Amino acid sequence: MSDADGGAVRGDAKTGETPEISIITPCYNAVRHLRDALESVAWQRGVRVEHIVVDAGSQDGTVEILKQFPAVRWLSEPDSGQADAFNKGLALARAPLIGWLNADDVYEPGALAQVVQFFHKHPQAALVNGHLARVDPDGKPLEFLPARSSRFWLRHFWWRWYWLNHPSTFYRKSLFDEVGPIDESLHYAMDYDFYLRASQQHEFHDIDLLTTRMRVHPEAKTSQGWDNFAADVRHTFEKVWKPAHPWFYRYSLLGVRMYAAKSHLSESFIALRAGNRAKSFAELKRAAAWWPLLPLLPTFYRYGARVALRLALGESLYGRLPRRGGQPPSSEQHKADPEHRELVMVYRAKNGIEAHLLKNALEAAGISAQVVGEALAATESNLWFAAPQILVKADQAEQAARMLRELEEARLSRATGNSE
Fold first, then answer.
1. Domain enclosing residue 78, as ranges
2. What is the CB neighbour count within 10 angstroms for residue 317?
3. Mind spelling out the 3-state secondary structure of the chain?
4. Distance from C-alpha of 238 to C-alpha of 130, rounded to nearest angstrom
5. Residue where one domain finishes, among candidates 221, 248, 268
6. Of 85, 122, 297, 367, whose CB count within 10 A is highest?
7. Is 167 part of any domain?
8. What is the pLDDT of residues 198-216, one digit of tens each?
9. Terminal Cα distance for the chain, rounded
């Protein structure tokens, strides 16, 4: 079948046996990681799998990779977003079970067979959530996110706006017939919207299994800012809660505004800690836009007290303050590690994920880098003090700082473009 066939479905439909599970992968210009995703599905054993890829008309070689996998069913045509692509794949799916795998994520070997077996053993389960590991672009582990949907069922899901990770979540296809397809008007919280609707009719189930590795990189939608997600969540609450529960709808909107303000307030203090006062002030303005009376936000006082202490005591004295849980100050940790004595700090990261992403970017440019302080940052809630730090050799510090500034400027440019 030629490319002139437009949106025609290509690949082997395998009409001999009905698949047990259909995996749907929306993608666009995914040439860098798509092969890994396709192979992770193709290598599954002990289960009949149908893989459907819905491409949005990529021009970067994505289609050429798809042609190398004859067992994959795929089509390539413009769409209105990830939700539209998923719904197209859902309409093509022939299996009673559904998985949603991003083009830059991969399944663990043998995961799908165990997921299918879990559904067979639990016929009442309509949605099953597994463990997920976040990894960097090269596949190195960054964070482990355990399955916890059943423990967070209903009360946490509604009152605390908890959402699941869709790459490690699996569904009965009948669930989409029951509660409706993915909302194509949403582009950031479309999975949360679906889970919220489903949670009103079904209890979610956990499987004690690492099912998926999810790549985190600056181009990924999960790496974008809170504002886009918050806008989608507000639309979801208006649709789900406002008609029948207007009081809960108003409460939910307050929660969205508070969480958005808290997110920007955190960014403001992180930027101030890094010495970027312009960005700190800009983030503070965004926080105030979401929650004009910032002094009424409890988080404001916690962050403010830490800033005041650091400014009053100075970094040296502040670093000697006892930490919650008895952790030693980071200065003592660094002294105990001779490997880092000849290195200088060029960046304080927001979290371990960002630290390793930037470390990999520096090393790709020939700059040797180390990440320190991860253990303290993971357990210490003090966002002013506890943060993973990127260290480089003194003779490469200027080059590294310049590259990090360029990466930050590029990230802000992408975020501005996506919000327009």
1. 3-221
2. 11
3. CCHHHCCCCECCCCCCCCCCEEEEEEECCCCCCHHHHHHHHHCCCCCCEEEEEEECCCCCCHHHHHCCCCCCEEEECCCCCHHHHHHHHHHHCCCCEEEECCCCCEECCCHHHHHHHHHHHCCCCCEEEEEEEEECCCCCEEEEECCCCCCCCCHHHHHCCCCCCHHHEEEEHHHHHHHCCCCCCCCCCHHHHHHHHHHCCCCCEEEEEEEEEEECCCCCHHHCCHHHHHHHHHHHHHHHCCCCCHHHHHHHHHHHHHHHHHHHHHHHHHHHHCCCHHHHHHHHHHHHHHCCCHHHCHHHHHHHHHHHHHHHHHHHHHHCCCCHHHCCCHHHHHHCCHHHCCEEEEEECCCHHHHHHHHHHHHHCCCCEEEECHHHHHHCCCCCCCCCEEEEEHHHHHHHHHHHHHHHHHHHHHHHHHHC
4. 29
5. 221
6. 85
7. yes
8. 888 888 899 988 899 988 7
9. 38
pLDDT at residue 103, as a whole number: 92
Q: What is the CATH number of the domain that holds 87?
A: 3.90.550.10
Write out residues in the chain with pLDDT < 70, as ranges: 1-16, 142, 149-163, 217-226, 270-271, 273-275, 294-300, 302-304, 306-308, 310-312, 314-341, 350-353, 374-387, 412-420
pTM, rounded to two decimals: 0.65
* Inter-residue contact 394 to 342 (CB < 8 Å): yes
Query: Looking at this protein, which amino acid is placed at residue 149?
Result: S
110 domain residue, yes or no: yes
* Residue 49 covered by a domain: yes
Region of residue 154 (left: phi > 0; alpha: psi -120 to 50; beta: else): left
